[in-house]
Design goal:
This protein is mainly α and about 170 residues long. Helix 6 crosses helix 7.
Length: about 170
């Protein structure tokens, strides 16, 4: 009787299954994933350098992996500032300085913020009138709310009104 022998696979070495093993390019899997994730975020929205590092860290990348990914994602940070400025202007009105301040708050450098605002093509007179209209709408809403609240408070605390209109006023 001859026994049939099966080919024996060589045992897997620890280096072939370790996720921390550098890829042939010298990058770890975490570094490679950080680059891809940074590029994916930039395809959806604009970020400052530091904002993107923070976002990758929030996603679970180490600080070193996040910095590695952001350094190699190919972003033009001036163009990111410009895109972010346009994004803000599409939803709200800003003064020129207000938009610069907002971009700096979003962790763009002052130079990047100035570039973005300078290149966004905003009509600052239109932005001022739009901001004024938004302010007036807000004040009208708040004014009506305050007036209604004041009238209800006065009605409920006015004994004469309550005597003339008997009902349960407890809330």
């Amino acid at each position: 009787m001859t026994s049939s022998s099966k080919p024996v696979q060589p045992p897997a070495t620890s280096s072939s299954i370790s996720p921390a093993t550098p890829e042939p390019t010298g990058e770890t899997a975490g570094q490679k994933n950080a680059i891809e994730k940074a590029k994916a975020y930039l395809n959806v929205m604009c970020f400052s350098y530091q904002g993107l590092v923070s976002q990758l860290e929030f996603e679970g990348f180490t600080h070193e992996e996040a910095v590695y990914g952001v350094d190699r994602c190919g972003a033009d940070w001036n163009q990111q500032a410009l895109g972010k400025a346009n994004s803000y202007l599409s939803v709200s009105a800003f003064s020129r300085q207000g938009l610069v301040d907002q971009l700096i708050f979003d962790q763009f450098t002052p130079d990047q913020a100035s570039f973005g605002v300078g290149q966004c093509g905003a009509d600052w007179n239109y932005q001022a009138s739009k901001k004024a209209a938004q302010y007036l709408e807000l004040m009208a809403f708040l004014g009506n709310s305050l007036l209604l609240n004041w009238n209800l408070t006065n009605l409920l605390t006015n004994k004469r009104f309550m005597e003339l209109n008997p009902m349960d006023y407890s809330f």
